[in-house]
């Protein structure tokens, strides 16, 4: 038996990277999954892989910054599975650039996906979870939301908002048996991270220098804690934000220290 047997979940941004890791882990633990993403090819592949594990899985093309898309994804999950037990707000974007160079358009886009998308997911999932007698909402924040992290200015600010919204939602929804938590990944070897680094960078070697445990994180590392929080084993956990980062948030070097070659690499990469 899996720890998520007979549970029904939505994972936003579930077609690739951390999201795909969560989808795969959920399926192995017995959950039915709706994959909400803009990547139709990746989403279809993720759904097909899940069905081979004898669970139900569907892909729904979803722009999490658009209310009608999020509402439709929740409705589709309920139609396909009968109820909604778990929502994972994973979809996000990150841009690494000097503060004075961030355009208003990029700032707004980052907040629309990373912050508004989380709010919309919560807004439309709550009623269905109440009908089901409870549920759990887990949002992906970041260690950049815990500490100012240049050059991730817009991203870090949005992820800090995710933590605050998680805490207020947990206080509101506890009486409905809806638990709300956030996970704060550190440096993860995933497509979203690779896209921020200069071409040819060895991501494993680079990331291994920035936390006490000398390796980059993997989507599987994040998926494991998400599955735990989604399970009945975490029945007494709500309003928490949990760092999953190899100890990096407590390291003396800080997060993306401005004096490091890593930060300089970001700046060089994004000025090309």
Q: Would you give an account of this structure?
A:
Helix 1 (17-28) packs parallel to helix 2 (40-51), helix 1 (17-28) crosses helix 8 and helix 4 packs parallel to helix 5 (153-173). The protein has 272 residues and is an alpha/beta fold. The chain has helices at 17-28, 40-51, 67-81, 104-131, 153-173, 191-194, 203-207, 219-230, 261-271; strands at 8-12, 32-37, 57-61, 86-89, 135-140, 178-185, 241-244. The longest helix is centred in the middle third of the chain and has 28 residues, at 104-131. The protein has one domain (8-271): NAD(P)-binding Rossmann-like Domain (Rossmann fold).
Give the helix/strand layout.
Blueprint: E1 8-12, H1 17-28, E2 32-37, H2 40-51, E3 57-61, H3 67-81, E4 86-89, H4 104-131, E5 135-140, H5 153-173, E6 178-185, H6 191-194, H7 203-207, H8 219-230, E7 241-244, H9 261-271
Termini Cα gap? 51 Å
Question: What is the CATH C-level name?
Answer: Alpha Beta
Strand order of the largest sheet: 3-2-1-4-5-6-7
Strand element count: 7
Helical run tally: 9
What is the makeup of the main sheet? 7 strands, parallel
Categorize the overall geometry: globular
What structural category characterises the helix and strand content? alpha/beta
Q: Return the string of H and E elements.
A: EHEHEHEHEHEHHHEH
CATH superfamily: NAD(P)-binding Rossmann-like Domain
Quick structural summary:
The protein has a single domain (8-271), classed as Rossmann fold.
Main attributes?
about 45% helix, Rossmann fold, 7-stranded parallel sheet, single chain, alpha/beta, about 270 residues, 9 helices
């Amino acid at each position: 038996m899996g720890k998520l047997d007979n549970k029904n979940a939505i994972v936003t941004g579930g077609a690739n990277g951390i999201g795909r890791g969560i989808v795969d882990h959920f399926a192995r633990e017995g959950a039915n999954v709706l994959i909400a993403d803009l990547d139709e090819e990746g989403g279809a592949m993720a759904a097909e892989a899940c069905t081979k594990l004898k669970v139900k899985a569907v892909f729904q093309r979803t722009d999490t910054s658009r209310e009608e898309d999020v509402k439709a994804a929740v409705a589709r999950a309920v139609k396909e599975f009968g109820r909604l037990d778990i929502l994972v707000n994973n979809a996000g974007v990150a841009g690494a650039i000097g503060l004075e160079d961030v355009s208003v358009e990029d700032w707004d886009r980052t907040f629309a996906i990373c912050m508004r998308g989380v709010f919309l997911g919560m807004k439309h999932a709550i009623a269905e979870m109440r009908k089901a007698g409870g549920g759990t909402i887990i949002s992906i924040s970041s260690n950049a939301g815990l500490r100012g992290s240049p050059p991730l200015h817009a991203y870090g600010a949005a992820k800090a908002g995710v933590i605050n919204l998680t805490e207020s939602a947990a206080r509101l929804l506890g009486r409905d048996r809806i638990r709300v938590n956030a996970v704060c990944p550190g440096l993860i070897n995933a497509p979203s991270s690779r896209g921020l680094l200069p071409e040819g960078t060895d991501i494993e070697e680079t990331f291994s220098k920035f936390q006490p445990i000398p390796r980059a994180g993997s989507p599987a590392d994040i998926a494991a804690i998400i599955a735990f929080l989604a399970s009945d084993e975490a029945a007494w956990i709500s309003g928490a934000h949990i760092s999953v980062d190899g100890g990096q948030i407590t390291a003396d070097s800080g997060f993306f220290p401005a004096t490091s070659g890593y930060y300089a690499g970001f700046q060089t990469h994004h000025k090309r």
